[in-house]
Input
Amino acid sequence: MAAESIMESVSVDMEHIYLGGKEHIVRTCHGPVSVIVYGDQDKPALLTYPDLALNHMSCFQGLFFCPEAASLLLHNFCVYHISPPGHELGAAAICPDDPVPSVDDLADQLLEILNYFRLGAVMCMGAMAGAYILTLFAIKYRERVLGLILVSPLCKAPSWTEWLCNKVMSNLLYFYGMSGLLKECLLYRYFSKEVRGSPEVPESDIVQACRRLLDERQSINVLRFLQAIDRRPDITQGLKRLKCRTLIFVGDLSPFHSEAIHMTTKLDRKYSALVEVQACGSMVTEEQPHAMLIPMEYFLMGYGLYRPNQFNGSPRSPLSPSCIAPELLSPESMGLNLKPIKTRVSR
Output
């Protein structure tokens, strides 16, 4: 589709101030999408995309509330938090008769959003299903992505185990809505057992907060995103065509740990690095956000971006990445060779 026709298909239906950011409801060819914009829009753009049943409040709040990470990201970027259709706070139930978008449709929505905001090439950060959508977008529209920061990413079609889990969740959503058992399935997907608690140990504050936020989701909207992700194709072959730099985080207790390792082996080792976080589930952004700081600092140095105490100017021009030397991503230079974090460069 030509850029002009894409632009005509997008309009802002509503805007309001949202916890320091502005929410835009952007109408695309595949339905409306909520985009929360934080910061100076003259700065380079950072897009975020969350996992199933989450939005930016429940998926990235821990990272952005971490002072050091917030200073690094908000100083250098204008952040565009994109919610999967119907996952924003206060979303109404999507009409069951509306066609369920495919993962390709969701990736194409991103192109329409970029064109609406007149963004060129952007940095992307996604978690699990959101990481898959952003990676697919980077494969389809390579010139529009400068770099990928992926948290416990997916890249293959669902395994038998995941397919069975998705089938159970689909049935729970269809017949019982956001039930207690469904929330337990989702919390298993997101967090390690340590923070989920046990009969003897209460669940952590972050799990309790996530549980409350899940109560606000419309079950039909979550079901539609789950159906799209459950039907996703394997994009492993497309990874070989990626030339943008990619930084992958994964908790060693994540159900998607092996998939993240697989993805790393398929990426060009000159442009990718893997950070494994010990004693952590899938959602590193919430469970151990401090583990992301030093690797992100070195990753962004390759684009000439620094934390404010190291760099006094405010970046207002498009990113112009330079080569990240492999030694900068070694465990020793990152200072992450000690527990509870282990870091390794993809080979």
About this structure: The chain has a mean pLDDT of 86.
